[in-house]
Amino acid sequence: MNKNELIKQYQEFCTETGIAPAYVTLGAGGSLLMFGLRESTADLDLSLPQALFEALREQAPGETQEPGFGLIVHWNDVVDLHLENDDPETEMVEGVKVWTLAYTLKRKLGWNRETDQRDIAAITAELGLA
Questions:
Q1: Nearest-CA neighbor of 25 among 3, 57, 48, 6?
Q2: Rounded to whole angstroms, what are the CA distances from 67 to 11, 70, 117?
Q3: Hey, what CATH topology would domain 3-126 get?
Q4: Which residue ranges make up each domain of the chain?
Q5: N or C: which terminal CB in the chain sees fewer CB atoms within 10 Å?
Q6: How far apart are CA 80 and CA 96, in angstroms?
Q7: Cα separations (Å) of 4 from 8, 18, 65, 89?
C-alpha cells in the first residue's frame, strides 16, 4: 500500500476500535513510508499499550508467536498488533503516530535481518550518519 492508503487504514483502525491515535504507534516499514524512505509497505505494524493490546487480542481472529518479535495479533489482512513493551521515541506525521527515524534505526539494527539492510542504509543516509 502507498502512503495515502496507509493513512486511510490507520484512521479506519482508530475509528473502528475507538482508540485515539495518541495510543496507536505505527512502526517499522510503515514509519519509513510516512517519512518518504519507502514507496510502499505490505502491512501496518501497530504497537499498543498493554491494556489496549490485551482488550483487542480477545477480539482478533488470530495471532502468532515470532522469534525476536513476540506475540503478534492479526487484526485483519493488513493490520498486525504488537505489545508496546518499551518506551519508543515517536512523533506525529500527518496525523499518524510513528516511530522516529532514530528509533526505527535502533530497532532495525537490533533485528539486523537481511530485509532490514536497505532500510538501515536509507535511514543512516537520511540522518547524515553515513
A1: 48
A2: 29, 6, 19
A3: Beta Polymerase; domain 2 (3.30.460)
A4: 3-126
A5: C
A6: 16
A7: 6, 21, 30, 23
Q: Buried b vs exposed e over 6-34: b needs ≥16 C-beta within 10 Å? A: bbebbeebbeebebeeebbbbbbbbbbbb
State the residue for C-alpha cell 502468532.
64
Of the candidates 25, 4, 5, the one whose C-alpha atom is nearest the C-alpha of residue 14 is: 25
Backbone angles phi, psi at 78, to 5 degrees: -120, -5
Dig out the grid coordinates for 48 from the structure.
499498543
The CA distance from 65 to 95, in Å, is 30
Residue 32 corresponds to which cell in the numbers above? 519509513
Which phi-psi region, left, alpha or beta, contains residue 61 (left: φ > 0; alpha: ψ -120 to 50)?
alpha
